[in-house]
Amino acid sequence: MEMNNYEFLNKIDGITISAGLEACGNEKLFTKFLTSFYNNIDIKADEIEDAYKEGNISFYTIKVHSLKSTSRIIGAYELCDLALELEEAGRKDDIEFIDDNNDKLLALFRSYKEKLSILDEIDTDSEDKKKPIDNAELEDAYKSMAEVSRNMDYDGAEMIIEELKKRKLPAKEREFVDRLDKALKNFAWDEIEDLISI
C-alpha cells in the first residue's frame, strides 16, 4: 500500500480520524502512532490484566491512565472514556467498579488488533527510516511531546521518541531527542517540559 494514500484510515472502525490527525499534526505521524499503538496492544493489555489479577491497583491505575492518553491521541474515544472511568475508580480504590468493567476494557482494547490489522499492509519503517524530517513534522512531534509530558504519559512520550529516532535528524536535533529520552527514562517530567519549552 502506498504511504501517500491514506484512504485506508477512513476504513478503521473505532477511530475518529479527524481527532487523531489534530492530535498528531499530520497523516504520517498519525499512521506511525497508530502502528505503535497496534504493535503494543498485546503487551499493554497483558500489563493491565496482570496488574488487575495481582491486585496491584496503583500500577493498574498508571497503566489505564496511559491507555486513556494514547487512546485519545489516536481518536479511540470509546476506549479512552472507559479507561478514564477505570483510572478514576483506581484512584478512589473503587474495586467493585474495576471488577465490573475490567474485562470490558480488555476486550475492547484487544479488539483493536483486528480493527488495526490493515496496518500490517503498510511498511512504514522502510519508507521513512532514513528520510530526513522536515521542520513542520518536527514541530508537530514536539507539540505532541509537550502534551503527553503534561499528562505524565510515559507510553505516549516513548512512542514519540521512538518515531523520531527512526528519522534522519540533524546532529543538534538528534542530541536533543537523546536528552528527552534520558529524561523520560528517569521520569523527569519537569525536565522534559523545560526542554520542550526552550
Can you give me a brief rundown of this structure?
The protein is an all-alpha fold and 198 residues long. The chain has two domains: 38-117, no CATH class; 124-198, no CATH class.
Distance between the termini: 39 Å
- The shape is globular
> What is the SS-derived class?
mainly alpha
Largest sheet: none
Number of strands: 0
Strand content: under 5%
Uncertain segments are 1-5, 124-128
How do the SSEs run, as a string of H and E? Answer: HHHHHHHHHHH
How many helices does DSSP assign?
11
Radius of gyration based on Cα positions = 17 Å
Count of the separate structural domains: 2
Question: Roughly what is the average pLDDT, rounded to an integer?
Answer: 86
Helix content: over 70%
Secondary-structure blueprint of this entry?
Blueprint: H1 17-24, H2 27-39, H3 41-54, H4 57-73, H5 77-92, H6 95-115, H7 124-128, H8 135-150, H9 154-165, H10 171-185, H11 189-197
Helix pairs in contact: 1-2, 3-4, 3-6, 4-5, 5-6, 8-9, 8-11, 9-10, 10-11
